[in-house]
Structures are given as C-alpha cells and as structure tokens.
Amino acid sequence: MNALTNFWYRSAYKRAIIQGAAILVVVFVGLGLAGQISNLENVHAPTFTSSPPFLTFDFLNARAGIALSHGLIFDIDSNDSRMDAILNGAWNTIRLASVLIGFASIMGLLVGIGRLSDFYLIRKACTLYVEILRNIPALLQIYIWYVVIWLTTPAITNAIQIDINFFGLELLQNFIIVSNKGFAIPWLVGHDNLGVWLFIGAVALVGAILLRRYLQKRQDDVGGNQRTNRYPILILLLISLVAYILLDSPFTGQTPHIIRSGAGGAIQNYQGGMVITGEFLAIVVALGFYTASFISEIVRGSILSLPAGQAEAAKALGLSAYQRLTLIILPQALRTMIPPLGNQYINMTKNTSIAVAIGFSDVVFATRTISNNAGHSLEIFTTLLVIYLVMALFISSVMNGLNWYVQRSGI
Amino acid sequence: MSMSWLRRGFLLSMLALASVALIACSSDDGDTTSGSNADSAASGESTLEKVKDRGILKCGISGSLPGFSQLEADGSYTGFDADYCRAVAAAVFGDSSKVEFVETTGANRFETLASGEVDVLIRNTTWTLSRDSDLKQSFAAPTFYDGQGMMVKADSPFQTLEDMDGATVCVNQGTTTELNLASQFLERGLTYTALTFETTDLLQEAFVAGRCDGWTTDKSGLASRRGVYPDGPDALRILAVTMSKEPLGPLTRHGDDEWFDIVAWVTFGTFQAEELGVTSGNVDAQIANPDSVAVALMLGVGYDGGDVTDMGLAVGPQFLQAVLKQVGNYGEIYERNITPLGLERAGSLNALWTNGGLIYSPPIR
C-alpha cells in the first residue's frame, strides 16, 4: 500500500473530497444557470436603450384590467391590481384543490376497499374503474366531463328547477337549479350578529370541552356514570337557546332564483344561494376520479401490507366487517398510507393547472393573461413558481405533521 | 477488495462529472459572450447580416388562424401574415420561398422575437404603447385594421352592448380582448361574466350549448369562425359595435433600424404598388417600361432611359420587384387571404386611402 491509496482509504478524507466535488458541481451548474439568466437579461435590455431593471415586480401593482369569473367570497373587478388578480386566481386554485383533496380521498378510500371486497361484482367493478381512469390522460377526462356531460345539460333558459314539496305544502321553491351555467344551491347568508355568535359559540365550546374533561376525570377517580357526553351537550344547547332568544338567528337560508336582464330579459343568471359553476364541477369530478384511481391503489396496498393475522384475529373476536375495518385495519394501514397520499395531493394540486383549458379562472389563467398584456414573463413565471411551491410545501408539511402524529400515537 | 473498486469507481465518476460540469460551464461562459455578441448584433449591428448568413428568414406566425396564417395539409403555410413573411424574404433574397415559419403562441410571441429566435413577428399583433415601449418592439405599418366585435346568436334580441347587461361572454384567452371587454362593460355600467377559453374549438362547443350569451374576439376572427359555424353562418350575427382599435402589423426588435426599415418599406411597398396599379401580373411590363416616375422609383428602374435612383435601403433599390412578382401587392394579398373569410374590403378601414380607407404609404422617393 503506498501513501496515495492509504490516503484514499481514510474515510474522513474521502468523504470530504466527494462532498467537496459535489458542492463544486452544484456551484458550477448554478453559475452556468446564472449566466443564462443574465444572458436573458441582455435580451430584454439591448445595449443602447435604457431598460427597466431585471426581475422587478413593480408592474404587478398596475391596474389588471381584467375581471376573474368563478370567484367565491373574494371578487375582483378590472380596477384591481394585477397582484390582486393573481392572488384571486390563487384563491380559486386553493378552493379547487381543497375540494378535490376531500373528494378524491373519499372516492379513493371507497374504491380501494372495494377492490378487496368479498363480493365479486364490487371487486371487479372497482378494478375496472382503476384500470380505465388512471390510464386516460387527465386533460382528456376534463374535456369529456365538460363537453360531453356538462355542456349537454340544458341551457339556463330551460333550467331544471327542483322544488321541495311536502304533502302539498310548497316548502322550498327552487331548492336546486341546474343548467349548464352550473348548480345553484341554497346557502346561508350571515347576519350582522354573526361575529357575536361566533364568539359565543367559541366560548360555549371551550366551556363544554372543559366540563367534559372534568367529568371524565371524576368518572376515572370516583367511578360511576358521570354522563360525560350528556351534560356538555346540554350546556351547549342551553347557551345556544339563550343566545337565539337574545340575538335572533345568525343566518338566513337563501334559495337561488333566476333573474333576467338585458334586452327583452334575454339574459338569465342565477341570483342568491351559492352557484357552483359547471367548469368547477367538471374539473372536480374529472380530476377527482382520476386521482382517486391512484389513491385507491395506495389504500389497497396499505391494507394488504398488514399481516393477515390482524384481520383474522379481529374476526375471531367476533367484530363485524365494519368494525374490523374501522377499528383494526384502517388505523394501522394509515401509517403506510400517509406519505404516498401526500404525494398524490401535491400532484393533484399541481394538476389543477390544466383547469384553464375549460375556462376556469385559476392562478395560471391570471398569470398568463397578465403576461400576455404586460410581457415580463420571467417575473410572472417566478411568481407562479413561488405560489405553487408554497401550496405544495404547505400540503407537504400538513402531511408530515399528520404522519408524525399517526406514527407517534398509533391510532 | 470489490468494495474498494466500487468506491474508487464512484469517486472517479464523481470527478468525471465535476470536470464535465466545468467544461460545460466554460462553454456556457463562451455561450454567454457569444450570446451577447449575437445579441448586440441583433440589436445594434445587423439582423440583415444574420439573415443573409443563415440564408433563410425566420418569421414568427400563429399557424392556426384561418386567413392569416394556417398550416395546410401539405405542410405549407397560407394566409395574410404568411404572405407578408414571404414578401420580406423576397425583398432580402429575391426568393419568397426562403422563409422558415416559426409558430408562436399569444403568450410566447414577444419572447420569441426578443430572444432572436425569429427575425420578424407577423402574428396578428396589436400595436399598443406598452408593447412598443415596455416590451421594446418596433411596429411597422399596420397591414390590417381590426377591431374587437361581439357575435351573438342570430335569433337573440341583442343589437348593442347595452342590451347585454349581465351577459356571460366567451373569450379567447391571451389577447387584449379580455381587457377591452372589461373596460367596455365597465364604462357602460354593465355587469358581465367572462368565460375564457384556451382553444377556439372548445369555446365554440360552449357557445353552441348556450353557455355564453356572446362571443368576442377581433372581428376578423369572428368572421372566420362564423364561416365554419356548425349551424351555418346565418345562425350567428356580429353586432355593429367595435369595441377596440386593433391595428395589426409586423414587428421587429427595438434597436436595429436598418432591419426595421426593410420590414416597414416592404409593407409600404405593397400599399404603394396597389395605389399605382402595379400587380404581380403587370410588374414585368412595368419594369421594362414604367408607367410613371413614381412606378420607376418604386421598382428601382430608370424612367424613360434615365438613371436608377438608390434611396439607400440596405436591400438595394429593386427590392420590390421580387416582392411584387412572387407575392403581389396589398390588394392581391388581401383578395387571396381575407376576402374568402367574408370580410368585405370596400368601405372598411382596410381600403386604400384613395377609397376612404387607411391603407396609405408614404412616398417612395
């Protein structure tokens, strides 16, 4: 062994050299990229003209000049700034992603369990679902849901109005209205006293929880049935009743109806209630079904990864199929399920960017329109990148937290 | 023993990677310098030299706008914009076929031009102040005066925008269309909902289904879609209102005035030729024996045995000869591409100034 090989065999040196080399690679690649970007800067700024500084975001403060549709809660009009338009688009994306995560999880759980069912028909139907939906591109599925299914519902001039009648009593007229403008459903409209109500509600809830804890402790210490659920619920109801008598209701239920405007009332729109647009719904259904096919495989895999003895022991104890699933199988399967589930949620959130294809005003739509009118695509794409990164990191951190909780507590 | 080989192999591959990265970086640096050289060439020195060295003109078009630029089944491009690309190539090379068409989208077109990927952008682009100054592009003469219109179903009662309060309007994404729509409705105190689509085909599906009350884009675009509407053109009506000024024309990068002049005067040349009655049919006869001094100056020939006047354009005094022979004058280009869309030229802004339109060329002398 000569000195050189001796040197290599000292792991401390070797590690230092390998890591040093890796850092060098990263630094040089980074420098190369920076060179490309400054090159781009040159493109934007020909040598002989004065040019705006590189990567400035001032233009985002200018008037957007566009209005975004599909808004809920926040609405912007064309006088708001470009940044407002982008944030409003981001809000639409977040709204879409949250609904999607809920929908796809439930759907995926059902199909995943269904694939392990003892019933031949359910098992095969779920297999068919997975194999068809996960193998068709998501964009195509969105098109199909939108064009073939959603756009073929009647136009608003022939809207389907569903009333609720009870033995001849016309309880709710226009409970739900369906047309290709979307679903209009009843919604609650908050009164001025909503804030007070929320405060009272919070206080009552905290009180009830504290009471339950106290009763629980007493039951443990003294024994006997201390009615740990009954009294807290009674207290909650009592406070609500007193508040209702004093303050009146915090909400009014509002049913949707159709209003007419324009020449000869030729234009019809929904008013009141909440409107879920067809575009929103088509994306939720299409992307939800699509992602659910992947989630169901995660669910199935996690369940199958448990030792068969768990289910058999539960069966031997006389637990019902439902009890076996909810008490024994799922809580354990959850441990292996959560990390890959987080991946699917992040994927799905990023996939919402194709929603723009059928006219949904998400963050991609807002940024694209603005870059079209104002240029500055490098800045716009940087903004878009940051927004998606924040969303993905948020989902990731929530899932990591959940994972930590499940691993630790072992529910 | 095998372990140590593995490690050595790993180490070696790391070193190899590092050196590759180093080489890549140094060549990157090379690129940066050559890039900025090319850039200063693009902006300060000569796009013309670059185009001549390459032997082909790179022209940015849309590629999917019937009448303006459309990819045909045989791989060629037809349309008004495509013909203007050919006209510039004819002026530079004397050969209108020396064009490489580069399809651009509404979103990437300005970057394509700014980065030097195309030499000239002829893609239904509206001349606006912010595009001229903020995006650093130079607009040559508008070749087509468009305006945003509103199309509705023929059996609807709408005659004006005021009739459309509360309407849902289908919009093509990625143009100034959305801005114009917003300000037109805002100024009139009307409410509306915009439903913005990426592709016109999907927009049409939604419109047919009655999802929208109106359909807005440039009037030329509306006319071309009306022509191919599934229920026939008579099922649709374009309102009289013009919501915006949309002067469309070729554009080049800021800074290369020589190149800008060529593109601008090729454009003006097609106007001037129509005004003087020079067409692809009679241009050879006019070259041999020009009708007037103006024709002789335009075609770069002597009048009545006189000398040729070179007005100093970098492509020589005869640049319009090939343009007119191979592509034709403005009227011919319009007739070939826009008339089939059903857009009447007479009485529109696109008529010659002598006929009450805006197509006007500064004198060529």
Protein model, in words:
The complex is a heterodimer of chains A (411) and B (365). Chain A is of the alpha+beta class and 411 residues long. Among the domains of chain A are: 3-44; 82-138 and 289-409, Orthogonal Bundle (MetI-like fold); 189-252. Helix content of chain A is 63%, strand content 10%. Chain A has 12 helices and 8 strands. Chain A is globular, with a radius of gyration of 29 Å. Residues 44-52 of chain A have low confidence and may be disordered. With 365 residues, chain B is an alpha/beta fold. Among the domains of chain B are: 50-144 and 248-276 and 328-355, D-Maltodextrin-Binding Protein, domain 2, CATH 3.40.190.10; 148-244, D-Maltodextrin-Binding Protein, domain 2. Chain B is 42% helix and 16% strand. Chain B contains 13 helices and 15 strands. Chain B has helices at residues 2-43, 47-54, 80-93, 109-114, 129-133, 177-187, 200-208, 219-227, 257-276, 283-288, 293-299, 319-326, 330-337; strands at 57-61, 64-65, 69-71, 77-78, 99-103, 120-121, 137-139, 144-146, 148-153, 167-172, 192-197, 214-218, 236-238, 246-248, 251-253. The N and C termini of chain B lie far apart (86 Å). The relative contact order of chain B is 0.13. At the A-B interface, helix 2, helix 5 and helix 11 of A face helix 1, helix 4, strand 10, helix 6 and strand 11 of B.
Kindly provide the name of the CATH class of the domain at 82-138 and 289-409 in chain A.
Mainly Alpha
Choose one word for the global shape of chain A: globular
CATH architecture of the domain at 50-144 and 248-276 and 328-355 in chain B: 3-Layer(aba) Sandwich
Work out the oligomeric state of the chains in this entry. Answer: heterodimer
Average of per-residue pLDDT values of chain A: 85
Shape of chain B: globular
